[in-house]
Each structure stands twice: as structure tokens, then as C-alpha cells.
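Kindly review this protein for my students:
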Amino acid sequence: MSEQWTTANIPDQHGRVAVVTGANAGLGYETAKALAERGASVVLAVRNVEKGEQAAARMTGDVSVQALDLTSLDSVRTAAAALRSRFDRLDLLINNAGVMYTPAQTTRDGFEMQFGTNHLGHFALTGLLLDLMLPVPGSRVVTVSSTGHRIRAAIHFDDLQFQRSYSRIAAYGQSKLANLMFTYELQRRLAAHGTTVAVAAHPGVSSTELARNTPTALRLPITWLAPLITQAPAMGALPTLRAATDPAVLGGQYYGPGGRFEVKGHPRLVTSSPESHQVGVQQRLWSVSEDLTGVTFPQVSASHLV
């Protein structure tokens, strides 16, 4: 398929059910909008229901809204229960919502905000919905990571919540590295089932509200460079959409912009950091995530590949 992949390449989505987290604005909005336009029944899973309903009103197709606050495991469980009561199948779960470079703060469950929202909230949501996906051929879990997974990134098992010393950049890198490690470990666990696959994507550098907490020291240089290194949310959403819909996609792949340094451009298959492929760390992170969230994945057995 041509590397100039666009929304025109999205296959017909009629009959498919998609849940997109953080879909009231930015990348999530563009992702949900494109899927709905191609015929999917799309659920905007959002923290602010009013904003979600306003976003849904601007879309065409079968679009609904579900309250979901990823900073609260109670909210995640409530949202999952509501979705399970509405649907008997799920074709796409797109773990898109996220926060970036937040000041030191915690979720309602006491987790560092970026790790708790970007990784643990989505880990729990996926575990609670996975059995709606496993019987569905072609179903996919798509998790949105970032090039930030390479920047000062490691899984700090000795201080996962950054309680000793907080760095908003390192905390963001940890959360985005966790997104990739979760995807790779989930794919190994799913491989035996042969139906659902786990895929990752990143948007490059897109002009969205996500960057509102960028440290002051970085804000001015980014502002100067913005015309050269940023792209519109509609373009930034393309890697996610390709990961979610391209028939050629394989489990465990990672999609991002095809331009120089992956900051912008049409989506293509990309590679993630060597650290993201450390299987032992992936498995340990999985175990810790189960312990922290209280959510297990009984449908898929632990992977044993090292």
C-alpha cells in the first residue's frame, strides 16, 4: 500500500464498534470522527461528558458518549460496566487519552498523574473490556505512545510514582514507554488466540492542547519551531487510524509519521527504542500494573518469551 496513507484508505467500518478514549478534542476527536464517517459505531469515552456531547454533535454517523475519567479506577470500572451493558462485542479499543508534562500531582488512587492516566488507566480499561474483543475476528487494541518514550525514559520500579524526586519530563517518558511495553506484552499474550491484536502508534508532533503543560524553558523554542515541526491533529491522528484499520497491520507493530525524525508526515511502520523491547521489564511492568489496579487478564495467559 502507498506510504501516502490517508483517511481515504480506511476500509468500510459499518458493523464495527469502536471506543476511543479522550475523543472530545485533538487527536482523539479526529480519530473518532474518521471512524464514524466510515460507518463505525463510535463511543467517545471522555472525562467531560458535556464536551464529549458537543464533539459528538460535530460528527456524522453513529456516535455516542461515555463518561470515563482515567484518573479514577472507580470511574474506569463504571465505564467498562456501562459499555458491557450496551455492547456484546467490541472491534476497536483506542487508548488515546493522555496528559503530558503535568506538575507533580496524583490521581484519585494516589498514582503519579502521567503514569496513572496514560498507562494504568488504559491498562485497567483494556483488561475490563478484553473479553468483548477476543471472539471478534480483526479486533484491535491500539495504544497511543509518543516519541517521548525515548527521552529520559525508563520504568522506575524503585520509585514508580516519582515520590522521591519528580521530573515531569522523565515521568512522561516513563508513561509513554509503559504504553509500548504494555502493547508488546499484550500482543504476546493475545497471539495464541489469533483474533485480537495489540498495536501502537504515535502522532509525531501535533498542535493540540496536550502541550499546555510544556515547561517554560521549552515553550519558546517550540513556539519558534512550531511551523516546521508540528502538524494538524487530523494528520497526527493518521498513524492511529492506520494502526486501527489497515488490513495489512500485524500485532505488535508501531506506526508513526513518515517524515524526518517522525515529527510529521503520512503514517508508516516505525521502530521503538531498544528499551521498549526488554521482555523481562515488560513482564514485570505487567505484574506491577495488575497489582496496582487490581485488574487481571484471565482470558490471556502470561507470556514466556524471553
